[in-house]
């Protein structure tokens, strides 16, 4: 394995103070990105500066309120560039993706009639399942599951085509699996849904950090993710296509504006978190060559990041496959995937693997089912019965040397 850090990682790593942390003399290697990434210093600085100098509610005429309004408007603009939204008014902020999804699902549910159908998938995080299943109880909707192919973390697209019908009102699907990394053919699925007059809700929480998001190319009517998975703070982001947002019967206070993004948001937002999210996207744009608008710079960075992450991930997976006692749960060869792998280690509870890698090697991995609690028991039933799987994910700051450390540490553990 090469130990030369990819070029983008070399430029990015000095901006992340968390990478200076050590455990037992080892610099910490963060493979826990699928559960939440570290933040560059610019994010913390932007949040601190806002709280100390500009902190106010928005919408009034005095100076800090005007500054807050401008900061929130700028945050919407750069977030719109990140997902390629047509307008910043199509961007909503909230506590997290799960809360936003429940909110939007409730609004959508008010338009349903008993017997209307919603399709969800067995592969998804339950944040893109349970908000829609709640509409069964509340509005008489019928929720149907797109199944997995047998023993594979991959959707059965033939079954999906059969499930679509004249009563289908919405398809909810993850852009990629947070447990197994499988990238779903969302654009293809969206086109099929649209042919039946259905809307498409895309969970991009896992995918957002690993490539270029483009709501237009995906055919998404809704798309949601959380900034803390993309080097930002704990803030949720949602895109809602303008024509759809205008028709949603969103729960809101009577005096609340019904125009643009304010139609879809409730109460006072987490201003400092939104400022931090904007700083994260601006940081990513800053890693691109100079010139061009925010969208072009973000596209350049995310494309380069995807290429470098795939190279590091390839060496990691190759090393894991060679270890006796380590079982990988992954999509078949040739199926697109984001750089996340689930595995188990014979004779070890997944929590013990996580704890020992942390305490003895300074390597952070997560364990459990990661709220993919339909998919994990189907794909890894034995592991799920023993507490779940271990998950490792590669991110912007991951290096081949860290991948080699993880493989070596697991080799020591299995010996």
Can you put this structure into words, describing what you see?
By secondary structure, the chain is of the alpha/beta class. It contains 15 helices and 15 strands. The protein is globular and about 65 Å long. The two termini are 21 Å apart.
Main features:
Aspartate Aminotransferase, domain 1, 41% helix, Aspartate Aminotransferase, domain 2, single chain, four-stranded antiparallel beta sheet, 2 domains, seven-stranded mixed beta sheet, 415 residues, 15 helices, alpha/beta
CATH topology of the largest domain: Aspartate Aminotransferase, domain 2
- H and E order: HEEEHHEHEHEHEHEHEEHHHEEHEEHHEH
Protein structure class: alpha/beta
In total, the number of strands is 15
Please count the helical segments.
15
Strand order of the largest sheet: 4-10-9-8-7-5-6
Second-tier CATH architecture of the largest domain? 3-Layer(aba) Sandwich
The helix content, as a percent range, equals: 40-55%
Strand fraction: 5-15%
Mean pLDDT across residues? 96
The value of Rg in angstroms is 21 Å
Low-pLDDT residue spans: none
Approximate shape: globular
